[in-house]
């Protein structure tokens, strides 16, 4: 592990006891205490580069104040433009930010764009209310008022997920501050249930990254190995990549759970990133609060089992970095300038690659996903429904195997980063996934397969197991 990785791990681990301290605190202490801790962590790890986050916050707040009815698009343009400036600092002869500054800036971009969207929704709702002449009751997910500058700063620098996620909306943050009877919200048991696989994942990461170091792929000697060895190597590389993020995201979720952050009654049917989808009246007494069943789906960032064992490429995206996937679907995919599912997915993947950074490997990897989506969708719609139940089961196993190999292949671009290293590795295995995806797409078209759709059908399998296993 690099020094940066150790720092991330320490930040994640100390957020757990800090969460227990804040859980039962009042709204004021939660707001300003959590912001003070987050700002302290930012100053400690980023130093003077903290100025970048402050400039981004102030710019977004100014746009919200100036154009509240159209601030979402303006905030998206502002924060994404600042990311370009932020990443071009070395080219401009300015000090290069630390990796921690980059992490803070990434999560801050998501939060500020979401905040602007929530404010815009509030203003549009208020205008409709004024035009209709009568007042409606509270709307699910709607803010009570526009946050002040200090409230925006407290949300932006809240220590929860400040470097690793999960992403959360301002409405989720407000619900935590105003949580009725926080002592009745369970924390310890859900935390232990969530945390138990993390040590195993950590050991598997250390073992796999030691036995199959990524740096070997950059050496000339690697390309003297036989083709089967080169093909196999991407499997443990992606395995180590997954284990690393499983540990980080589980630890980040545990920090939220310790603070009771993102806890909602199960009846609210909360979604990762978005929060409740059904209105639930707040409990009127500690006894009623204690009688409710809660979950932490709002801050759930990874479904490890489904990531590994879902069948399709598109489902693999849904279970990975789940709060960010919700953000991409809500603010990028839905507003894409295309109607086709594959083209909208390509647009989303392009902006996702840009959000991650300017390294060519990100773009090579992310822009391979739409090809895989088109291929699997066409062939599945053409053939799977014609098979017997046994044939469909065999299909799903083959589909799952190819899905995992596609992600192994794309992961190499994500971790090698440079165009030269990525294309050198892919060329050494004859661009096998690209060629296979093109062949499958061609076969699907020849057999009359329909265009991929985001809607599930009863015949489409989403997991190799009859029942999804969960840590809870």
Tell me the β content: under 5%
Ends apart, CA distance between termini:
29 Å
Strand order of the largest sheet: 1-2
Provide a count of the helices: 20
Sequence stretches where pLDDT stays below 50 over 5 or more residues: 454-463, 465-472
- Helix % is 55-70%
Mean pLDDT: 91
Estimate the global geometry from the Cα principal axes.
globular
- What is the CA-atom radius of gyration, in angstroms? 23 Å
Q: How would you describe this protein?
A:
By secondary structure, this protein is an all-alpha fold. It is built from 20 helices and two strands. It has helices spanning 3-23, 27-46, 50-66, 71-87, 99-132, 149-156, 170-177, 188-195, 198-211, 227-258, 286-291, 304-309, 313-318, 322-333, 341-356, 360-366, 369-383, 389-416, 419-428, 432-446, and strands at 264-265, 294-295. The chain has a two-stranded antiparallel sheet. Helix 16 (360-366) runs antiparallel to helix 18. It is found in: Endoplasmic reticulum membrane. Pathway: Phospholipid metabolism; Lipid metabolism; phospholipid metabolism. Belongs to the membrane-bound acyltransferase family.
